[in-house]
Amino acid sequence: MIKNTFKFFSRLKKNNNKSSKSYPDPISYKSLSDSDSNIDSLLEFCSHLKKDSKFPDRFVFNELLHKLTASNCGTLSLKLLPFFLSKGYIPHPSSFNSSITFLFKLGHSGYAQKLVNLMPKYGCEPDIATYNSLIDGYVKCGDVVKACLVLDEIRVGRCKPDLVTFNVLFNGFCKMGRKEEVFVYMGLMWKCCVPNVITYSTWIDMFCRVGDLELGFKVFRDIKKDRVLLNSIVFTCLIDGCFKVGNFEAAFELYREMEQAKLALNVVSYTALIDGLCKKGMLERAECLFLRMLEDKVEPNVVVYTSIIDGHFKKRDIRNALKYLGKMCVRGIKLDIRAYGVLIHGLCKSGKIDKASKLMDNMMKSGFLPDKLLLTTMIDAHFKAGNVKAALDLYGELLAHGFDPDVVVLSSLIDGLCKHGRLHEAESYFCREKANEISYTVLIDGLAKHGDFTGVDKVFREMLEVGFTPDKYAYTSWIAGLSNKGLMIEAKQIFEDMLKRKISPDAVVYDVMIRGYLQQNNEAAASDLLEEMRKRGFPTAAGKEDNLPCSLIRQYAEEYTKWILARRSTCHCLVLTYQYWNQLKKGALDACLIKSSSMMDRIDCLYLIGENYQQTYFSLVSTCSWCGFHEHSRAGQEVGKSCVVVSINGKRIMFDCGMHMGYTDSRRYPDFSRISNTGDFDDALTCVVITHFHLDHIGALPYFTEVCGYRGPVYMTYPTKALAPLMLEDYRKNMDRRGEDEQFTSDHITECMKKVIPVDLKQTVQVDKDLQIRAYYAGHVLGAAMFYAKVGDAAMVYTGDYNMTPDRHLGAAQIDRLQLDLLITESTYATTIRDSRYGREREFLKAVHNCVAAGGKVLIPTFALGRAQELCILLEDYWERMNLKVPIYFSSGLTIQANMYYKMLISWTSQKIKEAWFKEIFLAENEAAYNFARIFQNFDRSLINAPGPCVLFATPGMISGGFSLEVFMQWAPSEMNLVTLPGYCVAGTIGHKLMSGKPTKIDLDKDTQIDVRCQIHQLSFSPHTDAKGIMDLVKFLSPKHAILVHGEKPKMATLKERIQSELGIQCYCPANNDTVTIPSTHYVKADASDAFIRSCLNPNFKFSKSSPAEESDSASNESKTISRVHVSDERVTEGILVVEIGKKAKVMHQDELLLKLGEKKHEVQLAYCCPMHTETLEKSRSEDIDKSSLISLLWMKLSNELSEGNIQDLGEQLQVESFHASICLKDDCPHRISDNLRKDSESVFFCCSWSVADDQLAWKIISIMKNSTLHST
Counting CB atoms within 10 angstroms of each CB, which of 323, 776, 888, 1050 has the fewest? Predict the structure, then answer.
């Protein structure tokens, strides 16, 4: 029928009759366009019309374009519209919208933008629908920043944004998880229109995606309060968010509320519910919902089936998993990449290798290539099943399909071959170009287990030659192999080499060697190793002593006890495994307890309760320790990978988690094993605090959270959270382009950012009941902050990077005057005093101007955030004043995105920038902040060697790779060109080599050398503070102690001496790996027991008397001086601070604590017999001696010569404090030991005894006794 219609139209066209009635009129044409006509015939017909100037109706033409773009012949619309425009036809603006949408669909966003710009030329002004199409296209392409720029154009006044505009934009923010931008544009939306249910549902979805469920529920409650008609999308988003955070009750409550509202569940709602239940192991409820889904005639999708299949595999229910796979195939649902992955992984774990292999074949035939995780799973499964050939065949087949194996896959292959003894094949698969430390370690482990120690030595040497440092795992494999073969001399040599390379052995290394020595019956060497373990500061591994002799078990117990007691002042609890203590002999255990209880004066008591050996540990808390592990960050005496761990009153905070830009191997990341040897970082750290978004401060965070497994809180400012993903993703892409191993993925970055808790400036955040932190403005870069931390009365500040001088786009650092125990400050420019900013700017502009005037090109390597904005403002202003036409370029879209964020976070910038933004927004003045009119935002690679001068900002700033290195390699050989380095460059980068001198050649790698003839201009536009700024901050805060980090050793030493000499503040500049411990002067808050308070009420009077000479000085007029007795109350409050787990600290009396512990009170008494000298004593009648008279004579003697103590005559006994003296005969003295060799001339003695507390007083009295002769009658 349609064919006959077109024939009729063709006959009309061939008719020579000129009557208008002979031509198809618009109504006829519309009827044709409304039909399901052939698109090519339509286009042919329109072509005939154009030749006769019979243009179709504008609305009909728009409908035609819409049909063309919606069909699979959409490219025809792109030919039709320009053809009509060239003939003078003026279409409806909606006609352009269809073409714009289709251009975005093809990925040509640039052409879509050009088409919008051409619309006024053809008499069509873009309307709001046009701009909405443009914004929607940018959002779907993932370029939300350009979508925001389009909205800025609309706000200028061309047309008013509507509800669709904001909904589309919010949808883009939602997909990218950008919560901060949503808040910014919420305010703009309320000025233009009122949100609808789609808007609210988009907000809720976004909040749930970023894990802020509380905010999602707040919006949900606001919707119900405003009586907005709810839809199933709102409920689905909240249900999915509840499942992600594990709040099942809230999810089911929403489900019930959804049913009460009589909202039908769609496929998305069911998918969210079923997927969430399966992930949480609630498979039965998921299957019930699946049946309900079928009853409601909602067709399950591939996600639903995959979730249920995965749930059955996790429960090892293979039969039901395959049953659902069969149902899936019957319904004609095709497997996607995730479904294939779940099935293959589950079958491999269940030992169904054959079925997994068949699925892998089907997967590859369907056009899906396995990822490295799935391939590694399959290879490992084949090796475990003993099918080496199948593993190698699979690998070869994937190579034939163009699969590029990475180091993970190759390491898995090598490991499997080594375990099966096929060492030569393993070595053949070893790819040195892609190898990393893991690959080398796997090969070393395989060779060592099979006794090929020559091969191990060869691999070790090669590993060192290519720049990799063997870690403790490589050494452990080598030592274990030698020990198992009984080669203990060689094992000891490797062990010593390990120590020389400053690699700390762990308990596994010691355990392997101890067992090796014991196999040779060499208990002496095993004991020596135990002694060495003690010296290195950690005990032997619990639970590893099964085969040790009793003597060594006893020594294990003793060494462990020493280790515990050595840390008594900072430990609050003791945790020992029952398995460990259960193996100890009773004698060894008793020895441990004796060692512990002998220290009663310090109350470091370890005792057992019950038969399960539960331990309670009382500790005298005497100091507050600050510990910084500066090796992680190279922040001790080096710039790069900042990561400082501070322990303050039992709380451990990691400040920054950065990478080193000068390394491409494992040295780029901190050694996190120094924080926790077990890898349990959640218990080892209280929180992580990030100061700003530079990679040397945040670059290792995704690796630490997603690969190492840290799940605790991470704090940073709002701008840092917004900008950090841009920097991390840009770095990851550069690594990918260079073919380097990805240590983290885009998904890792996304998941990492979900753990971040953003903070505002001067907002006090209570991390837990003891620790609080607060952020202060640091300048440096957008969002940079200093952080104040306080636990109890102990307080500190960690500055991160900061700038005490304001610049063109950021203000100076600001902080309150705080009472601090410790200040940790950066010292990048520890000895540099910069000249004025204006002088530096003049020098920079002069160098750039001279270069472009001579026809050269200027490369400014800089990071996309910070210095780029500072220098862009400077060049923009200079270009305008000098009327220069030389183009200035940004190298990538990252800087464009950065400028967009600077606009949105304007409150963090300098006062001048804020004023410009205010004028733009409220006064409509053309002083837009960060709208660089003379700087082009797209630099194509074809322009690198284009003739003529230009200025290029290229990232990264240290020329460590990326686009700046690519351009440098092309421009460096020309003397006309200039490279200006405006910031600090880390050692090992190209930038650092250029700043260190004027090299003529630079070795990029062993195969690539760069000729350097260009001009090198170094200028300090660094955002770090100089020496004056550091001194000003230290002086302003006046901490009790200061630690310098993030600097170079000689310069730090100079600054340290200056701080100590000028400010009188104790300063430290620890090297990498050093630990600094600083005692706190603060007191511990504790309750006082009743017994302790009663002991304070007992007076302790001390009597003393002044000498006659002293009295004569004060009363010279008196004829006779009289000695006066002075009485003083010298009571001393003595108590013991006891800290029990989970209880408040308490000061107790010693007797009270002894009673609590069930211990006896011990007191040391000393005794001595002093010979008595008298003039009238008859030795023959010593039994008739008048003891009372002699005691009285002694009392008089002591009263005249002893000025301290209360001397009491008790008849036959004399007492001074605890000192007692009585008279005894030679033969009946209870304290004298019979000595036949000693012949004493005296037969009468003073028998003395005293407490050890009065030892000094006692010997003073005895000295008087010895030197005195008593005149007895």
Answer: 1050
